[in-house]
Design goal:
384 residues; Rossmann fold; single chain
């Protein structure tokens, strides 16, 4: 007797096949849709006022709660700006609550309370998270709190750039030295909460680092993890360097590569040396646009899978939008720890100035996005 067997095709779900379904950042035109919960931070930068001003202008009211993250660092600078921010928030929301922005467990608890404080009728909770003045620690912690919620959450990320950051060197190619650092000191202990990962003592360590122009905190994290050249091998250290399509900021991506090269030379005992070859191999780095959260997540997941069999940590010192991608990747790959460390204080006078372009990232159903990212690398069986 002849048996007719069904034919199947077995394929691996690649990152590229998932990317076409992921949201893209766009310029914010002022239409934000319904808001049930808004999350903002009370930093000292002027750009924290951008979204609240827009909402006040268009008379948009949040129907539930506005949650404000308050920082312990630069308390006086933050209080001065908050005197402008609070009245704007109260125009759009009758319930403005404050929470500790510096402690990840407290952030997650506050977000959990905010999400569950409104009765559910089965519809998605419309959440707007303005990251314009948020630290990487706060961004990752808020994202973790939202992802952990059992509520269906429709999430919109808002990001307003500053009008002015550090200025470029006087002449192209001239060595650049920061005359007034934007941050001072390094916090005492690198933080891995809220994504602590699942690490085992018998496995080697591997790190994926997203650097900035300021390497003191990055160096503290690498030393804490005991990875990189100080262990005699570069095979356990991978870099995701920043890139940008904005001409006036292209010098910044070159500067980041320069300071990372200098850091690696110093780790090798070759500080001040002008290297004739590549300090970091091409295979050990990629670049990603500072505004591209989803591509950040994609690159991280691909490299996390390459590092399988290691205790993997992501050290994030990159952009705010990239921090969103870091949180998404960590949620999709729960074995990974996210490590950061805050400075002792910031130089509010030189950190940034003015209000620049505002962007919107419409994530939609947050749980669905995390599920899509989690599926990268999985096996798919289809009948022919």
């Amino acid at each position: 007797m002849q048996v007719n067997r069904k034919r199947f095709a077995v394929t691996t779900l690649t990152a590229d096949s998932v990317m076409c379904d992921l949201p893209a950042i766009e310029i914010f035109e002022g239409d934000i849709g319904p808001i049930d919960l808004m999350i903002v931070s009370a930093g000292f930068e002027e750009r924290v006022l951008a979204l609240p001003r827009i909402l006040a202008t268009f008379d948009v009211a949040t129907q539930m709660t506005t949650m404000v993250g308050r920082y312990r660092t630069n308390a006086s600078d933050n209080d001065q700006r908050y005197a402008q921010l609070r009245p704007l928030l109260e125009k759009s929301s009758k319930d403005v609550r404050e929470f500790d922005a510096d402690d990840p467990p407290s952030v997650m608890a506050a977000i959990g309370d905010g999400v569950t404080s409104r009765a559910s009728n089965g519809d998605a909770l419309n959440v707007v998270f303005d990251i314009s003045g948020a630290s990487s620690t706060l961004i990752v912690s808020v994202m973790a709190g939202l992802i952990a919620s059992s509520r269906k959450i429709s999430l919109v990320i808002i990001y307003t750039a500053a009008q002015m950051y550090d200025q470029a060197p006087p002449a192209y190619g001239e060595r650049f030295e920061l005359e007034a650092s934007r941050e001072q000191g390094v916090g005492s202990v690198p933080l891995s909460a809220p994504f602590g990962g699942h690490h085992h003592d018998h496995l080697p360590a591997a790190v994926i680092a997203l650097p900035s122009m300021y390497t003191s905190r990055l160096e503290a994290c690498l030393t804490y993890l005991n990875v990189g050249p100080m262990t005699g091998s570069n095979q356990n250290l991978f870099w995701i360097l920043p890139s940008t399509g904005v001409d006036e900021h292209r010098w910044r991506q070159e500067r980041v590569k320069e300071v990372v090269d200098n850091l690696m030379l110093r780790f090798h005992g070759r500080e001040g040396e002008v290297s004739s070859g590549a300090v970091i191999r091409e295979d050990d780095m990629r670049s990603c646009d500072v505004l591209d959260s989803c591509n950040t997540a994609r690159l991280l997941i691909e490299k996390i899978d390459d590092f399988s069999g290691n205790n993997i940590s992501v050290v994030h010192m990159g952009s705010k939008m990239q921090a969103v991608g870091v949180a998404l990747a960590a949620a999709a790959r729960e074995e990974v720890a996210v490590l950061t460390v805050r400075p002792v204080s910031f130089n509010a006078a030189t950190y940034s100035a003015g209000i620049g372009q505002t962007y919107r990232l419409d994530i939609g159903d947050l749980a669905v996005l995390v599920e899509k990212l989690s599926s990268i690398g999985s096996i798919r069986v289809e009948s022919l």
